[in-house]
Amino acid sequence: MQEEVQKQAFGSRAVKAPRITQGGLLLGIGLAMLAAMLIVTIFAPFIAPFDPSATSPDSLAGASARHWLGTDSIGRDVLSRLIVGGRTTLLITITAVLIALVGGLVLGLLSGYLGGLVDDVIMRVLDVVFAFPVLLLAIAVVAALGPTVPNLILTIAIVYTPAMARVVRAPVLSVKQWDHVEAARSIGMSEFRLVLHHILPLVVSPILVATSLTLSQTIFTVTALSFLGLGPPPPDPNWGGMLSEARQFMELAPLTVIGPAAAIVFATLTFIVLANGLRDVLDVGSV
Amino acid sequence: MTRFVLGRLAWMLAILLAVSFIAFAMMRALPGDFAIAAAGSQSVAPEVLAAIRQDLGLDRPLLAQYWGWLGHALLGDLGTSFVTRQPVRAELFDRLAVTFQLTLLAAIISMVMGVATGLAAARMRGAIDWIVRLYNGVMLAVPNYVVATLIVLLFGLYFPQISIFGYTPFLEDPLANIGSLLLPALALALAVSVTISENTRAAVLEVANQDFVMVARAKGLPPGRILRDYLVRNALTPVITATGLKIAALLGGSILVETIFAIPGMGQYLFDSINSRDYPVIQAIVLTAAAIVVVVNTMIDIAYARVDARVQL
Amino acid sequence: MIGTGPLLSVRSLTASVTTRREVIQAVRGISFDIGVDEAVGFVGESGCGKSVTAKALMRLTPEGTSVVLGGEVNFMGQDILAKSEIEMRALRGRRIAMVFQDPMTSLNPVLSIAAQMTDMLRHHTGLSGKAARERCIDLLAQVGIPDAARRLDDYPHQFSGGMRQRVMIAMAISCEPDLLIADEPTTALDVTVQAQILRLLLRLKEERGMALMLITHDFGVVAGMVDRVNVMYRGEIVEAGTIESVFASPQHAYTRALLDAVPRLQSAGQVR
To answer: Which residues of A touch C23 (CB under 8 A)?
Structure first.
């Protein structure tokens, strides 16, 4: 407060050299990590040195020039399985969050913009979904529907939609009372265009940050489900399933556990770094 | 205040009702015939299936089934396991006691670790702050089941003589009981302690900027007293609330951690019943866990409102 | 150990404030004196450096954000800027006390008034808990809080803004300081309450024979309150003198502008 006032009183006389801010640095690192992960995932079949499902008699081997991360209990190359397994894990994660984002946008905009009864009904319904622990709800739904990729995507999307809707709703509530929205309405702009041109752009920043954070949480949920045996069915590898399978012989081949663990942590960290970078750069308060 | 409490309680009941309906409907939405699942085999005589249908009330309208089921649940009858053919309640309560112990221990560990590191980071700044924040940032990305697996790996590789699996009941040997829960609780606590640490740090930094802290300094009070009476007491209220809200995360996490450490709690029960498709058990666990979370959240809301009335500036 | 000369003597005090992007010279070599039991006003717009000056006198500048760069501060014959933090602690509240601008945020919301008053009193005077409580009731009555004995155990949120400022004043005078710094003590209050608080401050100053440093942006506040006034602008004292002379013939254009901002009726009464 005091400082702000003083800055105004004295004007700014200090030299402002362009420098890399902490947020910019974080964002850069996050984007680089994301790019690396996406490239490896998209070109997985070309990058993976072995067929991820091909077994060999050389089981539970340690790291070697041939198998960088060794082999698992039935002689499959761990690195190849990790690279290909990232496809399933990330496909489910990203698709589910995109669906949750669309659902959250629709519900949040409706709720925040229309207000009143619509707002009440939507928020109360979402409260009920919120009451369940995320993982528990996901387990219950997947257990009921059966663990297939579409079911997993649908479940995760349902589980994370309420959180996204809340993130969208809060800024809409305040933005819609700003003068420029009033002004646009007074010159007879249609409601749809109003929302599209004057409200949506202002809530983009918090939504980007929240999406990134949700992605990091979703990685956790998806891999945890697979870890519990509720992941995509074999033989396609996925990180959570690999970690779970490898536990049996992990003292003999620690890399079979450390590999998927590192992959899960790397993916989660990517989205957390990205979220923090975005938050700083876009100057979003806590979401 | 009374109005607020009554309102929250009414809302809690409404949510519980909705939660119970979801738990009920979920199992009726199962693909395939519920009676076949209940019989545990595809090749059952039609008469037997009919008998099961009648027994479970599957021939009645859905809403009537729900009311019947809810009535039983309220009286403590949570159904019969497909696998053991025993009432779910007795086993669930035993398991719940174990999970409660584990969660409580984890909550204490995470609280102590989180508040200590958060406070240190906020007060000392500099290198300590940097290290705590880096640790928090990285640990936030390590899921609790990965921590648990790595702990198991570490002990398997370097201390194979120490048995880290299994569970000793409290009444049998209190010390061994705590010992058997220590590592699982630690695995569960680490992720939560990171959040508490970040919350504590932010809260202390925010309170440190408040006028009354400057006033306390102007009064000539020693730093230790300012820290205790002015900073921590004000910063901890929101931190404790946030920790209470983490109870859902702890419950969710216990599913995985119990499975890894072979702790016979509710999480492992759920895991086992998922694998054996024991739907009444899954249903009972989902209902119980969601009910616990709803009730705990409501209590925190009310407790916080009471504190807030005093704190309200 | 009162030295000869004025109670407080400040020479070429310079202080800076660091914001996120830059360092600002908030106080640029100001000099002034405050005599024993004298009331001195500091008037200027927000950001002119008057609050930074007050905090610098108590060495309350938060680490890293504002720094005293140089000059001399002599209080009762002691060099304030040379003191250690521990020595300063013995001085703060005991010899120099301060009343802050916003009574709504100056009290700790989770401690009772009794706890907040006695912690300071007992720390400085070593009074027993019971004696300290008695003293607090007495002080609260002196600053005009009705039913003081019963209100002592109340929490800040149970008091109005004006009452809270009275509590702050009671707290500030509890250890019988030699200098009371009041930093915009009435700015956050209703107009009717402002006058009451100012009268209270003046009365306490007269009764106790302490010096008063009254900081404000409003010439209307210092009129009738202080003996001398310093007008601050952009970190410097641009005009100093007795209240009468400054009101009668302001030398600096900025002072004239400030005086013009005071409602006519009030200043007309002062300007002869």
So the answer is: 14
